[in-house]
């Protein structure tokens, strides 16, 4: 049975990036994007704590700025959960998070491709490089790198949650 796959897009700047970016960066950016993939009745996202899940729109950011329909998936729920568990132990552990190089948008891209064969919009995944290519971005990069070195942890919430209850994220009516 096919399941709908959506990309929830949040603007971490709450509109300030659109207003202030020309003066700070010398070019317009429309937002500072955080994304999550909504499938099987939950929203999945990645950050410094690893892979996490909540109800759609249930993050601390509230409702998304934009919802992008990525299509449907034929991937069974159990296979998806196995895939997430593997990612949570390898390429998407909390310790692998990096604001510019390995972030929530890279995770959403990975999940979108696994589930649908399609990627998320390029303007979202290209944003870090777009910012770093400006003089201001080049100036702040060493500070961000230093913060990354001191806050990198080994927390993997998804893996820990899975150890507690393998079925906690299973939507009603999904048996496989």
From TrEMBL:
Molecular function (GO) terms for this protein are:
peptidase activity
Origin superkingdom = Eukaryota
Q: Does the keyword Protease apply?
A: yes
Q: Does the keyword Transmembrane helix apply?
A: no
Q: Which GO terms describe its biological process?
A: protein modification by small protein removal; proteolysis
Transmembrane portions of the chain: none
* Pfam families reported for this sequence: Peptidase_C97
Report the coiled-coil segments: none
The PPPDE domain covers: 3-145
Q: Keywords assigned by UniProt?
A: Hydrolase, Protease
Q: What family is this?
A: Belongs to the DeSI family.
Name it: PPPDE domain-containing protein
């Amino acid at each position: 049975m096919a399941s709908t796959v959506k990309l929830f897009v949040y603007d971490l700047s709450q509109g300030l990036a659109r207003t202030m970016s020309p003066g700070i960066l010398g070019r317009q950016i429309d937002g500072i994007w955080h994304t999550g993939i909504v499938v099987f009745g939950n929203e999945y996202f990645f950050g410094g704590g690893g892979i996490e899940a909540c109800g759609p729109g249930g993050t601390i950011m509230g409702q998304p700025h934009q919802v992008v329909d990525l299509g449907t998936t034929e991937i069974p729920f159990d296979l998806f959960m196995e895939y997430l568990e593997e990612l949570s132990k390898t390429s998407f552990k909390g310790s692998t998070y990096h604001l510019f190089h390995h972030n929530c948008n890279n995770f959403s891209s990975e999940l979108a491709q696994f589930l649908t064969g399609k990627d998320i919009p390029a303007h979202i995944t290209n944003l870090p490089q777009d910012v770093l290519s400006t003089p201001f971005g080049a100036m702040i990069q060493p500070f961000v790198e230093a913060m990354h070195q001191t806050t990198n942890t080994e927390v993997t919430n998804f893996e820990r949650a899975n150890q507690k209850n393998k079925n906690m994220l299973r939507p009603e009516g999904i048996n496989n």
